[in-house]
Amino acid sequence: MQEPMTEKKPTTPYRKPRADAQRNRERILEVARESFARSGANVSLDEIARLAGVGPGTLYRHFPTREALLETVYREEVERLAAAERRFAATMAPLDALRAWMLLFVDYIEAKQIIAPALNTMLGCSPKVFEESGALITNAIDSLARRAMESGEIRADLEPLDLLRALVGVSNVVSGPGWPESARRLVDILITGSRTSG
Amino acid sequence: MQEPMTEKKPTTPYRKPRADAQRNRERILEVARESFARSGANVSLDEIARLAGVGPGTLYRHFPTREALLETVYREEVERLAAAERRFAATMAPLDALRAWMLLFVDYIEAKQIIAPALNTMLGCSPKVFEESGALITNAIDSLARRAMESGEIRADLEPLDLLRALVGVSNVVSGPGWPESARRLVDILITGSRTSG
DNA sequence: CACTTTAGCGGAGACAGTCTCCGTTTTATC
DNA sequence: GATAAAACGGAGACTGTCTCCGCTAAAGTG
Fold this sequence. Notes:
Two copies of one chain form a homodimer.
Chain A (H helix, E strand, L loop, with lengths): L18 H21 L5 H7 L4 H7 L3 H26 L2 H18 L3 H10 L6 H20 L9 H12 L7 H16 L4
Helix pairs in contact in A: 1-2, 1-4, 4-5, 4-6, 4-7, 5-7, 5-9, 6-8, 7-8, 8-9
The structure holds a DNA duplex (30 and 30 nucleotides).
């Protein structure tokens, strides 16, 4: 039933994505990053939309849930953490790699304090949400810990994710300036306590 | 300027607290306990008021904030934890006492899953709120840890509260039935990692 | 028991945040 | 330019928080 080939391709009848959509999406992300950093993860989404100069409907079309927005805002940092895992695993001894990565994790939380609630939600919410970013982090700690287990350096019965949850728990309260030391000490404790020999 | 003493006492002109106030307070607590346990710490307060058969105003007069209500609901358990601290400190070696208390803490979270968000808020919120309950928990872990430090069994540089925060962090996600084991393992890791000798 | 006093009640309603629906506008493509 | 589809945006429904204040009923008094 096809007509002569003067028409466009019948397959993939897609058109180029609209320019204004792309622009709005980026303005929203920009404002959201700033707002989350300034006022925490609970700022009003309508407010973000207003600051971005779009209607609420537009924001919700691009990011159906608060989690989706959070995830996108922090995707970049999460991907960097995932990349670090690959780097560490390739160049360091298992236990050192695990420790280094956990310390890097602390650094990230310290630098952009706001990543903590996001991660908290990522690790805490129903697994359906945050599939993408959550999986990146999960896989990272998982493969680092597994490698250390297989090499016999840490006990085989621990749940890798728990190490991370412990860190996130501590970072939940980004209180005084003494926090970073606290967190780094905790990494030390967790690593030491995870070793096999004892 | 006082008139002759035929009047009631000028000092402490207090009257007996009203019976209905006490009754309402208890009905609210009862419903709140149940609601928090069933649907988490974010249930609507107006809804709790409705279920308790009182107006929103009454609920808010008795408990000005959600935190105040949460605190009162869980005060009993918190006090039991504080009592356990005294008992353990009196009868066990420092390190054992610390471990035992942390395991008890896990048990409490396991039994009444809902205590976790409450504690999370208690430890996480501004220190002003939760003064009472928060201090009970803080003091408990603090004195247990300090005793173990002074006896030289655990490293002197750790922040006692961080141990607790780590536990709360892990308990944030009360996911599968495998959770309790996870948490107990974490206690083990934390204790082992906190010891001095290494 | 009648009477006064006032603690306590409770609901109407102001306010804020979430999220959706749908008429209008803008864009890509022809 | 004409057309169709994609995207916009804001009015508004809905839900939850919290307060104000006129009224109710319990406690105190003789």
